[in-house]
Amino acid sequence: MIGVLLCACSQAQVTQYKYKVVKDYPHDMAAYTQGLFFHNGTLYETTGQYGTSSIRTVDVNTGKPIQNKKLNSKYFAEGSVVLGNNLYILTWTNKVAFVYDAKTLEYKKTVGYPREGWGLTTDGKQLIASDGSNTLYFLDESLKVVRKLPVTMNGRPLKNLNELEWIKGKIWANVYLTDTIVIIDPKTGKVEGTIDCTGLLPDELWTSATDVLNGIAVDAAGKIYVTGKNWPKLYQIELMK
How many domains does the chain divide into? Predict the structure, then answer.
């Protein structure tokens, strides 16, 4: 009986949410979304795959790129974010990250990166990166590790943390190959909430190219947007317990 009670208490610590679609917007079906975020009112997106990786600014209402910079075909772009005047882009297995000018998208430099690049966000002071494991890495502006944060849910390591977003003092993360987004305490690494996004993209909008849920962004007004790889829609959502 004690064991059951302890398990129930542990489970109760994770708040489960569903979503409500507030509005949907067009999204480029050719965009294999890796990084998604707002900065100064503009939506930024990195797209992946060898030969089609890019960094772009996007018109939310049309889904069309405003600026679009393609990466060399040997690079597979991953998560991205702006900190200060710099736009940082991780690569998947190339062992490098790129730094661009946040306003002009002009290339600045390449920095060595010793692990796989997956998701990237910022708390406004440091960069926060994922690598597909259950560890999040807090980085300075030179991409040196300042702190490692093991992530657990109900006391167990939670792997496959992918695209990241900092929302109201918490880290939101896509769990790769699932329809789940988790909400993580940046101090303890514990998952405090899960968002079940099952059915977000209706069956009739799926094609042979459609891939998994990936991409979380929050604008200055606190509106939350999500999409997926090669999805035709970008969704503004609200949470419901």
Answer: 1
